[in-house]
Every structure is written in C-alpha cells, then in structure tokens.
Amino acid sequence: MRRLREPILMYHHVEPKPFDPKPRFTRSYVSRAEFSDHLDWLAGKGFSAVSLAEAVDRSGGGDRPPGRCLVLTFDDGCQCFLEHIVPELERRKMSATVFAVSSQIGGENAWDRARGERVESLLTVDELRDLASRGFEIGCHSQSHADLTTIAPAELAREVAGAKQDLEAALGSPVATFCYPYAHFNDAVMTAVREAGYRAAVSVHGISGVSARNRFALPRAVVTPGASRLEFQLQATGWYGLWRRMPRLGFLNILRRVRDRS
Ligand SMILES: [Zn+2]
Question: Could you say which architecture CATH assigns to the domain 8-226?
C-alpha cells in the first residue's frame, strides 16, 4: 500500500483527576483536561479526525479531502470512552476508533487486573452499538487481550478470527480493523489478522517491524500524561517516528530527558 499519511495516536484512558484508586500503569491515564487541551490544539490547527478504517480506505487512492487529518485510537473500550472521550470528540465533530476485547464486552479489564491494575468497567454491547451508530468505529482488540506472539495456532485463530466473528455478531456490522494487545505481533500474527479478513492492524512506534507502508503493522504514537506540547505536536503531525530515532543522533533526546525529569 501507499504510505498511510494520517498519523495515528493511541490513548487508553481519559479520566477526570484525581484518580481513585490510583492506577498502577499511570502512563495509560490522561486527564480529561489534558485530552481536551490536545483536541483544542488539533481543532485550532484545522485538523480533522477520522476512523482508522476511513484512513486506510483513503490510502488506497481516490479523492482526499483538503486539510490536515489524523486518526485517534482508544484501546480496551473502557467506560471512560463514553463518559469523557465521546463528549469531547463530538463537541469538535471528530471521529475515532475504539478497540474492544470481544470476550469482555460489558465486563472488566481482567487482563490488567491480574497485574494489579484497578478495575475498569468496559463498554456494553448496547453502548458499542450506539457508538457505531454515532459514527465511531469499533475495532477488535482480540478475544481475551492475550499476547498473540506467545500462544498456539489454535488459540491465535480464536483470538483473531474468532474475536472478529464474535464482535460482528454482537454489533450486527462488519469489523474492519485490529489492534495488537501489548502492541506485540510477528509474521504469524500478521498473517492470521490478514486471513481473518481485517483491512488493517495497529501496533506502536518502537516495536520491531512497524511501518506506515504495511497496513497490518501500522505504528501509533502513544500519548502519555504530562507530555510536552512539542512531543504532542510531533505525534500529531507525523514527525514522531523520526523524533523517536533521534536519540541516536543525540539532539532531541536532551529535550526528552529534561521533560522526563520535570
Ligand atoms: Zn489493550
């Protein structure tokens, strides 16, 4: 495929502060005020936000709408998507993709709970259907949030193809995109995703094999709380991949270290 031009951002949770109980993986939690600030910056710069499926479809050619565009993605399908993310997006007429774990619809973040994370309630079938009807894309985040690079072939088929069937049956509509749990994938996992009929899959920058030219290994920029405006701008404008490689050149890494200490 042609290079996917739209940068893809990755968020997990957006919550009002203070967090109670405090999360274990704090870098997955962005405050609503900070998220709102990100969207204000994007809107002010004239960005539009489309779903991942729409961006991938555009990459196949045809007319492109004018102006800057990016993709906002949200992993795991937590209730915070409905409570805090959707109102901010709809206010600015922005779309997004939310990735749901098919065996935990209406359930909890069981995979994170095993690692000591606080309980997060996940979106129900009715809520996911409602979101789809409002123009948000529901993508698949596997059946159980397993690390797909560590499981047997039969399990892989369940986690990828089985999850697609389950999610489509629940939603009553096709599911086009996949998100690798923990961002981990390899050739066998990519093949399973392609053969299951997905049109694209996402990982994150820094994982071996990601490429904006491979629609089954698309990189995303992970938005973390407290990141500098410079970092967010680089993520949103597509320069983030280059910036991540800069530490070897030693320049922007200095900025990053200053920020990390602050
Ligand atoms: Zn996840």
Answer: Alpha-Beta Barrel (3.20)
